[in-house]
Amino acid sequence: MNHIVFLLVPGVHLLDLAGPAQVFSTASDFGHPYTLSYIAERPVVPTAQDLPLVARLDWPELRPEDLIVVPGWRSLALVDSPDIGAAALRALRDHHARGGTVASVCAGAEALGRAGLLDGRRCTTHHDVQDELARRYPRATVVRDVLYTADDRVVTSAGIASGIDLALHLIANQHGPAVAAQVARDMVVYARRNGHEPQASAMLRYRSHLDDTVHHAQNLIDARFDRALPLSTLAATVGVSERTLTRLFTRATGGLTPLRYQQTLRLERAEHLICHGATVDAAARAVGFEDARMLRRLRARGH
Question: Which of 114, 108, 122 is nearest to 89 (CA)?
Fold first, then answer.
């Protein structure tokens, strides 16, 4: 995805919009450029927080690798949501029909429903309106109490801040989990996932400490977990002895050595690849194991 288009509806929640926009903007800062556009049916869009937004009226030409996001808006019930014009709904349908991805945050799922994009697909929304979404779109499968769902290039997320989790998920799919973790860490948030994968990324699960030396070592492992990284090289790079690094690392991460941390990252990435159709052998090679036996052992014992 290179172009991210946010479709703004009157009463839009600022965090529904700003959260995903910040994720893609931060990814751009790390060398993965995105163009962000804000489209509406009027040049000035009122928000739920009383800060008006200026938007463009014309839709850019989109390619299949681009993304349309519909942030949510303030509404006690979906049936009382603001009108969304036929042109906007057609833009959503056409983009998806051409192979593009569409996404929603919170009540934004209503727009995808009106566009006919929820029929036959899994979706979610804010817990306050999940039941109503299921009643309004009975051909959809509303998944309750998850942060987000992804089904056939239709990605929906729960309320407000979950738009950040949705965007991080898309970044991980596009650029890999290390980039998503880098973006999340820069934003001081936790990378979250759902489905068959753990909700908290291993790259951030062991970051709740204040040891700069260990953070430095983790940054190196995060970037090179699929390659050989001897303890001696790691220790020399961060400027301490091997024994000191092992002691600091184990204390900061609650018992993990640098090697065990690297294996955890490899296992998590391998599970992600296997869930998306890769064989165990292919996944093992992709994450840096010389053969699949180590991966099979780690999977068998749950690491």
Answer: 114
